[in-house]
Amino acid sequence: MKPYQLLIIAIVLFAINSEIAVGETSPVGIGKPNLGEEHFRRYCASCHGLAGKGDGPAAGALKAKAPDLTQLATRRGGKFDDAEIASFIDGRAEVSAHGTREMPVWGEVFASAAGGGSIGDEFSRGKVQVLLEYLKSIQK
Ligand code: HEC
User: What is the model's pLDDT at position 114?
Assistant: First the structure.
């Protein structure tokens, strides 16, 4: 793991911990329509950019290009595949299948921030779901 990746993960863990501390983690943001956007800004914008265009401040430090996330559906012939995208964000299946990737393994990051185990998994699924809905809403 590269030093900048550790830094990004440290920032993310700090963000998650302060979120747990103020008790903002209640189920999938019902009544909080901007939760997905908030999560995106907090966890994803450093690489993918505030608008998801792939131009975040950390993007230049990556070997791979941070993809434009407003074009997920377009790049897949107009289809937004929830299961595929959720699994990619989570990343735990992906890593064992392909070995390398530059994007953090969010499933692991979120789950361990919530203490692991079944609660960690639940927390992680909630986060990924909220992010997925947000990504769907920004498709161009
Ligand atoms: C450290 C930089 C970084 C951060 C932070 C990051 N990503 Fe990524 N992301 C990448 C890179 C680089 C790729 C291209 C695949 C790879 O090399 O890992 C990618 C790929 C993706 C893809 C697949 C795109 C495609 O066309 O298949 C999705 C979806 C995605 N990211 C969503 C997210 C979400 C949601 C977050 C926040 C939870 C996030 N990313 C945070 C760097 C990042």
Answer: 95
Q: What is the pLDDT of residue 117?
A: 96
CA distance 67 to 47: 9
Q: Are 89 and 106 in contact (CB under 8 A)?
A: yes
Q: CATH number, domain at 68?
A: 1.10.760
- The tens digit of pLDDT for each residue in 2-42 reads 667 777 777 666 666 656 555 554 555 455 668 999 999 99
Identify which of 48, 74, 130 to mutate to test ligand 1's pocket (most ligand atoms within 8 A of the CB). Answer: 48
Give residue 123's domain range. Answer: 3-22+31-137
Q: How many domains does the chain have?
A: 1
- Ligand 1 touching residue 109 (CB < 6 A): no
Token readout for 92 is 């735990």
